[in-house]
Amino acid sequence: MEDETINTSEVNKNTKGLPERALDGVKVLEYCSLVSGPYCTKTMADLGAEVIKIEPPVDGDPARRMPPFPEDKPHREKSGLFFYLNTNKQGITLDPEKPEGKQIFLDLAKEADILVEDLPPGDMERMGLGYDDLRTINKGLIVMSITPFGLTGPYRQYKGRALNMSHASGQAFLLPLLSPHANRPPVKVGGNTSDYDPGLVAVVAVLAALYWKGISGQGQHIDMSKQESLISMQRVESVTYANDQIVMTRTGNKTRMPGGVLPCRDGHIVIITPEEHQWNALMTLIGNPAWSKEPWCRDREGRSEHADDINKLLIEWTKQHTKEEIFRKGQALSCPVSPSKSAEDLMNSEQLKHRGFFAEVTHPFLGSLKMPTSASRFAESPWLFERPAPLLGESNEEIYVERLGYKEEELEILKTKGVI
Question: What is the pTM of this model?
Answer without folding.
Answer: 0.89
